[in-house]
Amino acid sequence: MGLNKKILLAFVMLIILPLLGVGWLTYSTSQTLIETKYGEQTEITLKAISKNIYYVLKEVNYFSDNYAILNSDIQETYRVLNTYEDSQIDLRYENGFEAKLRRSFLSYSPIQSVALYANSGATITASNIYNSLITYAQLRLNPVFKEVQQLKGIPLWIAPGEHTELFGKDAYFYQLRIVKDFYNTSDIGTLLLQIRLNELEKIFHLYNSDNVQTTRFMLVNKAGLVLFDNNEELQGTNILENIEEPFVLNTSKISQKIHFQNTKSIITSHEAELGELGAKDWIIVSITPLQYVTGQINLVIQSVGVILALFLISALIFNFAFVNSIIRFILRVAQAMKRVERGDLTTRVDRIGKDETAVLSKGFNSFVARIGELLEEVKLEQTRKNKAEMMLLQAQIKPHFLFNTLESINILAVRNEGAKVSQMVHRLGNILRISFHGKEEITLKQEFEHLCSYLEIQKYRFEDLFDYQIEADEEVMECGILKLTLQPLVENCIQHGFEGIEYRGLILIHVYIEGERLMIRVQDNGIGMSNVILAGFQYKMFEDMAETDSAEHVEQRGLGVRNVADRLRIHYGKEYGLFICSGENQGTTIQCVLPNTKLGDDYEA
């Protein structure tokens, strides 16, 4: 590790990290403490709300008990109703029944409607609002009736949104209970009360901390159904649908962080403990945006963070401004030496002065300059050698193909087939134009023009021997490739792959881009190669084989697959070249791997 890095590391480890750690610890601790204390305070608030709701329901239960059980008029009404068997008769005006209900139940303002169901099925109702209650037959068919019977006279509270098949989706609370005979405690009927609990809204607004109602209070059941919402937005929906995280209503957990309606919030829940009054499984939920809870402390922490950042910047400036100049110079020389090791011979170390450091920088610069001169001489010599090899490889254009093509043109001319003669001459011109092109590298589009001309000439010479397909997207046409790369590969397919076949050959050329490489695949369905010949390609055994081949056999191969591989290696480097896969009677596939470079319009012939 360099000296500069050691100093910087010590500065970071001993000053910056401890300060950041203390800051983060303070922030986390304060956040946790605030959230915990807020959760505890909210728990106390929810307990107080629960107690208030308890008193509200208890008051309603008191009136229900007083009129349903203790009131002799109501008891007598049930006895009379049980003498009627036809539940379809309108009994409201019989014996002053409706007047009795209005003097008793409807005298209590929260009760909006009341229905007395006798065991015989006779029913009498009264209401302060335009509303119709369910029939006794509907009630008996619903499972809630059995639940009420099991309570044996204890009232059952039904909140808005519960049992909508009976009461719809209105905002009223309902109370159901079995009414017993005061004297023999036998069941004499059922009582249904429709109640508007305006006191709930007053209770929730009373415990909001400000006028903007930052805290959301809800009354839900254990399934998450919102029975009452002080914002009147989610009433009748499921609260869990508005919470992004998996969440279970858990009365034992004081508070928890959640995302409620896309806002990070703190949710606190408390069981209402209203079971003895007939309201089972009700839970009071408080939801407060986290920003409201931690807003002021976040502002303080941000201010402290800004001060801390200014302090750290000042410390960094001080550290870098007063580091010893000699140490900085040594580090510069060390870095310069590393760049020279990586091959950057333009590196220089500037030092103004007459001390030893100036002498050292001058000697270093002279040493690097001399190395650069020697390397340039070596590179120039190697470039000349490579160019000579490339010229030698490209000079191996076989004359047989030219002679055979001219002979074919002569035959067409004798037959007086001028159109075909023109086509053959045009294609031969394309081949010669690319062959004599002054630049080593051409676009893939130009290479395909040369290749198509070559294949069309060969198709005329070897009629019905083969077909060919070229698959290449337009985006690859401007990629660079060494000229005369693909012709030797397809020539190998025609002269060796299709030798002696009794079926129509196919040459498939597929071009695609893979990362930073251009992949060209030349595939035929010919006779393939034996393992010996294939091994010769893989392990460069063709050097010895070429020496033993006759001159004519070498001539037949043209530039040859080996020449293409050598040219690619010389021009692009060892990581590029040819990969061959073949088997006897299974065809041959040659994969040509090139760098993905764009040449553009400047390389058009």
TrEMBL record:
Keywords: Cell membrane, Kinase, Membrane, Phosphoprotein, Transferase, Transmembrane, Transmembrane helix. GO terms for molecular function: phosphorelay sensor kinase activity. One of its GO terms (cellular component) is plasma membrane. It is a multi-pass membrane protein. Residues 324-376 form the HAMP domain. Gene3D superfamilies: 6.10.340.10, Histidine kinase-like ATPase, C-terminal domain. SUPFAM superfamilies: ATPase domain of HSP90 chaperone/DNA topoisomerase II/histidine kinase, HAMP domain-like. Its main location: membrane. It holds the Pfam family His_kinase. This is Sensor histidine kinase. It comes from Paenibacillus psychroresistens. The lineage of its organism: Bacteria, Bacillati, Bacillota, Bacilli, Bacillales.
